[in-house]
Amino acid sequence: MIDPIVSSLKIASSGLSAQSTRMRVVSENIANANTTGATAGSDPYQRKTVTFAAELDRMLGADLVKIGDVGRDDSPFIVEHDPGNPAANADGYVKTPNVNMLVEMADMREANRGYESNLQVIKQARELINMTIDLLRS
Amino acid sequence: MISPIGSTLPIRDTQGPSSVSPVTGGLSSGATDIGPQSFGAVLTQLASDSVATVKSAEATSIKGVKGEASTQVVVEAVMEAERTLQAAIAIRDKAVAAYLEVSRMAI
């Protein structure tokens, strides 16, 4: 049986890595917000989504969080009329990625908050451990 | 990683007078399982345990510098090493204090 405080450190650490992956996906979406297809009429960058999943760690006896799936957003692409674009189809329409900047910004802020919360858990757990060890001193 | 250090503390002495009397045949079953742990051996194991943790933390740090390990992993390993070291030092101080106390006993 592992110390619950130590296991909460490990759990928070898994949360940190999950939120980092979420941050990575958001940055991919933002960076590719204007990526159109290479050939005429082809599909542009498709927005990526990320899901989390609980994972039982048998050694800790607790649920860690892991990345469930990095999937693709199937919502329709935004179509713009731009006949001069190399990716335009015969009618002059260009498919642009289904990335909504506002949603990505909100998602990024949420990943940021989640990361901060997990950091706080680590900070508190560490303080508890140090306080307990300090009982031996004096 | 704190529990292994705690388990290295001498268990032999807590058995009390029952293990001292060699007349009973039950001595071998109890005493050989634990094995005679001298004070020095306990401290040695305590030190080697924490050295192993510190070593793995250093290896992880080097990996982090090379870019093979993420920041979180490095911080976690270093924090674990720090924790183990703190616990080991505190327990060692306590054990040494107890030893000194015994040696100062008026006979």
What are the salient characteristics of this protein?
A: 138 residues; alpha+beta; two-stranded antiparallel sheet; elongated; B: 107 residues; mainly alpha; 4 helices
How is the topology of this model organized?
The complex is a heterodimer of chains A (138) and B (107).
Chain A: H1 4-31, E1 48-57, E2 62-72, E3 78-81, E4 93-96, H2 101-134
Antiparallel strand pairs in A: 1-2, 3-4
Helix pairs in contact in A: 1-2
Chain B: H1 3-7, H2 27-34, H3 39-66, H4 71-103
Helix pairs in contact in B: 3-4
Descriptive account of the structure:
- The complex is a heterodimer of chains A (138) and B (107).
- With 138 residues, chain A is of the alpha+beta class.
- Chain A has helices at 4-31, 101-134; strands at 48-57, 62-72, 78-81, 93-96.
- Helices cover 45% and strands 21% of the residues of chain A.
- In chain A, the strands form two sheets. Chain A has a two-stranded antiparallel sheet.
- In chain A, α1 runs antiparallel to α2 (101-134).
- In chain A, 19% of the residues are buried.
- Chain B is mainly α and 107 residues long.
- Helices cover 69% and strands 0% of the residues of chain B.
- In chain B, α3 (39-66) runs antiparallel to α4 (71-103).
- The radius of gyration of chain B is 19 Å and the shape is elongated.
- The relative contact order of chain B is 0.14.
- At the A-B interface, α1 and α2 of A face α4 of B.
